[in-house]
TrEMBL record:
SUPFAM superfamilies: CoA-dependent acyltransferases. It comes from the Bacteria. The lineage of its organism: Bacteria, Bacillati, Actinomycetota, Actinomycetes, Mycobacteriales. This is Peptide synthetase.
């Protein structure tokens, strides 16, 4: 494309912190997974990806100095014949852990796994999109597969431009590494996976899933937990059409024993007061040479793994509610949708929640270490059992009304 007319936008301070992560926590990708029944023709998928990318320039970005620039190159569609994801230890899966391709500056790709079940995997470097931006991109590809017109996402706007326009109401939360994790700490060993990746399906759904998970994590954590809840900034400008990083955290400080309904009210208050807008100021720490940024992140990981001192206890995100009917394409009927979080050295736990046809999917990336895997699996067992029980009670109450 002509450099003077290509879509471009500045790399924000938020996004700068993600570049060292590709080496410190590889492959550092958000991955949205859609298993289903039927099959998808690779050529047809390639055409749909091209059509969607033509109006979603955020899917074709490459770094050029201090800017993201539309390369004009359609994201690659990679077919992995016969592959089935390595559950439950997804960190051992050679496809999910592989680098994004085909070149080192690639930021988005689409996988088609032809095993049973056939599965679409959308892989995105967090430096170019946030979670909801990825969802917008995926929906555009599915629209194109159905023969519909994708919705253009032409605005070169990320958090660094939007927040000053909207206005931050207060000061940022102080970032001090003192918070414990629900899975404890553990020394990281050479030759052992530095991060774990898990997916659990809960055969039920109900209100307040995110708040319920926060309450369960706090109950398992010594002292006050600090939960980081990403908030979609697009809520401040409904006309905005951008897949860029437009999420900032709402911090929730939660004591053990706090009921999930109280946490839900805490979230409502934070959103009403627009507190997430305050946090852009915290990203200014990245305005240092990349080598310094990398050193800060390395130290943050060491403090968390060895001493259990973290900037936050966990991140918990809810990526939305989906149905098979809205996601279906000719020849392929989705049977689920879940989001695998990127790994992080700055956070011990990153949880992702989605709801699909009355089922709740829970995913987590966890910083590994001595004893962490067993504690993580036990924690997930308790979360799944508790949510299934609570949702069943809620369903009974709803039916009796």
């Amino acid at each position: 494309m002509n450099g003077s007319t290509a879509f471009r936008r500045p790399i924000t301070t938020t996004e700068r912190m993600y570049f060292p992560m590709r080496d410190l926590a590889p492959p550092f990708l958000m991955q949205l997974v859609i298993p289903g029944e039927g099959d998808i023709d690779p050529a047809r998928l390639g055409r749909a990806v091209a059509a969607a990318a033509a109006v979603t320039p955020g899917a074709r970005l490459v770094r050029r100095g201090a800017e993201w620039v539309d390369s004009g190159i359609t994201p690659a569609v990679r077919v992995v014949r016969g592959h089935v994801l390595h559950a439950p230890a997804l960190e051992t899966d050679p496809v999910l852990t592989s680098p994004i391709g085909p070149t080192p500056d690639t930021t988005v790709e689409v996988l088609l796994l032809t095993g049973a079940p056939a599965t679409l995997v959308f892989r995105v470097f967090h430096g170019v999109m946030d979670g909801m931006g990825m969802v917008l991109w995926v929906r555009n590809v599915l629209r194109a597969l159905r023969g519909e017109e994708p919705i253009p996402q032409p605005h070169p706007i990320a958090d660094q431009e939007l927040v000053p326009r909207v206005g931050a109401p207060g000061k940022p939360t102080a970032m001090v590494p003192r918070y414990r994790s629900a899975v404890g700490r553990g020394r990281q060993r050479r030759g052992v996976a530095r991060h774990l990746l898990r997916h659990r399906s809960i055969d039920a759904a109900g209100p307040g899933a995110l708040a319920r998970v926060c309450a369960l994590l706090a109950a398992e954590t010594p002292g006050t937990s600090r939960i980081m809840m990403p908030v979609d900034l697009r809520r401040h400008d409904p006309e905005l059409r951008s897949t860029a990083n437009l999420a900032l955290p709402l911090f929730l400080d939660i004591e053990p024993g706090r009921d999930w309904t109280q946490i839900k009210e805490q979230i409502k208050t934070g959103l009403h007061e627009r507190r997430e807008l305050n946090q852009l100021a915290n990203t200014r720490i990245t305005l240092v040479p990349d080598v310094v940024n990398r050193g800060v992140l390395h130290t943050t990981n060491w403090l968390g793994a060895r001493f259990g001192r973290n900037l936050a206890s966990a991140t918990v995100s809810h990526m939305g509610r989906f149905t098979a009917e809205e996601l279906a394409v000719p020849g392929f009927q989705p049977t689920g949708l879940y989001v695998l979080p990127q790994h992080s050295v700055a956070m011990p736990l990153l949880f992702g929640l989605t709801e699909f046809d009355g089922r709740t999917d829970l995913t987590v990336s966890a910083r590994n270490g001595d004893g962490v895997e067993a504690r993580l699996d036990a924690l997930l067992d308790r979360i799944v059992a508790t949510l299934e029980s609570e949702f069943a009670v809620q369903d009974s109450v709803d039916r009796s009304l």
